[in-house]
Every structure is written in structure tokens, then in C-alpha cells.
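Session log. Operator J.P. requested a structure for one protein chain; no other inputs attached. Running the standard single-chain path with C-alpha cell output.
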Amino acid sequence: MSAGEPGDILLVKTSSMGDVIHNLPVVSDLAARFPRAHIDWVVEEGFADICRLHPAVRQVLPVALRRWKRQPFSASVWREIRAMRQNLQTTAYDVVLDTQGLLKSALIVRAARCAATGEKLGYGVRAIREPLAACFYDKRFFVAKSLHAVVRNRQLAALALGYDLHPALDYGLSPRDAKGARGDSVVFLTAASRADKLWAEHNWINLGRALARLGLTLLLPGGNALERERAEHIASKVPGAQAVPPMSLADLAALLAHARFVVGVDTGLVHLAAAVQTPVLAIYTATHPALTGVLGGGWFRNLGASGAPPNLVDVLKALQPLI
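Structure written below.
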């Protein structure tokens, strides 16, 4: 490495899915600015496949904070924690960057090993979600909380590593070939982590029928049993629609990448669709999209807000450029 350039960089952004996807442009920025650097990433085990899709990520270090929290006195959990700490000590990092700003992520930063001149970096007290976390960094930086999450992540990295931020947005994903998707396929993402984020089933059915009349094939993924039941019920009411079997995140990324466009509620997968540059319309019913809505380099729309879900006419009108 030339003088002043980091050789080994560790990113800490563990969850949730949308937050992890929002951090992918940081990898692209770092790889463009420091092409010879090695970039590792600490992430929740369930989202590790997303990080692995970025070709500039050398190594993914999975953690299981959510699972460990459920069994804090389990001997197997403590063995996994010790193994995680050993992994974090394997490489002497020039930079450890926490873009999450939580106490749990700061504790991971503390456990990581730095080179003699290495530094642990993160948000400053006035910019961070949990101010106590800022105590674990060697240097802290202010980034306005009013910015979109993607922009905040990118600005923090640019300030911390001292480079000018390029305006182009690049998620850098490289999904594998799609399974079951075609150029005339549309993916419906109907499931969400909370019931109040759902869009009424009759809206999905009527939207699906309108698109089917245009010759489009609808694909409806579902993760757990309840999500698959919902997808199967909607698919059964729409001619030619298919409920997709459970898939890994890598396969879902490929499915989304090869769809004509995606319509989904406030879920991590709509951000994944934007990240693979598929046109996406995101529907919001219980949250506001201003700070954490879909942000992509291609066509995207965020419709609705907390307590003000879009109706079918709104959605069809927004989709007109695509259909």
C-alpha cells in the first residue's frame, strides 16, 4: 500500500436487512478510493449473503447477536462468542468503521484488533443513535441526522477516511443468474415484519389482475409459513401468478435483478431490488420513507406514509412509466 492508504478495513454494520443494504455503497466508495485495500464486514449471520454479493468484500465475519440474546446462558453461545472475538483478532486492521452507531456495534468495534497506527472510527455524540457508543471510538464525526441513511453512511466513511464523496450511487451487487424470473416477470413483496406495514390483500389482487391483463407474470416470494400462505392466497386469485418457494437471500437478489419491476411494502427486500438496479415501487403504510425509504441509482418511487397508505389508483398511476 502507498503511504496514507489503509491496507485492511473492517466495517461494522450488523442489521437490519435494509440497514445492511444501505451500507453497501460504502464498500463501493472505499473500493474506488482505495483499490488495493482489503475490506471485511461484521454482520448478522442472516444477512451475510448480502455482503458476500459485493465483489469488493474480502471476508464476511458473521455474528449472531439476535440469537445469542435469546440464550444468554447457553454454553454453546459463549463458545460462539469466544470464536467471534478470536476472528476479530486475526487481522490487525488499519481502520475499523462503525456505521451503525449502537452500543452493540461499538462493543464489536472494541473487540476488533487494530494495527499499531490503526483507528476505530464512528459517529460523534450529536450524530449517533446511542450516544454511549461514541465512547468506544478513537475519532468521531458529525453527520446530520436529517440525511437519508445511505447518504449518512457514505458521508461518515468519507469524513473518517479523508476522501471526497463521489455523487454517483453504486451498491456494487453482483447477483447470480435468476431462477424462474423472466423479462416479463413482476415481483410482489407482500410481507413485512409488522402487520401495520402490510398493504391490503384486495389491493394486491386487483393490482395483480391489472398487470396480468397486460401479459405480465407475477412472482410472490414468501419467507416463513405465514408469508408463504399470504403469497399463495394472493397468487391463487391472479391468473398465471406464482408463489415462489423459499429462497436464500442470494437467490432472491438474482430473482429481483431479472424482474421487469418490483412492487413491495416497507421491507428489506425492496431495498435489495433497488440495489440490483431493478425498478421498484415501495409502498409505505406505517412509516415515513424520507430517511430510510428506497434510494437507488435507477427508477424508484416511494409511495405513502405513516397512516396514509396509497390506494390502488395511486400505485397504478405511479407504475405507468414501467407498463
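Operator note: Residues 57 and 260 are 28 Å apart (CA to CA).
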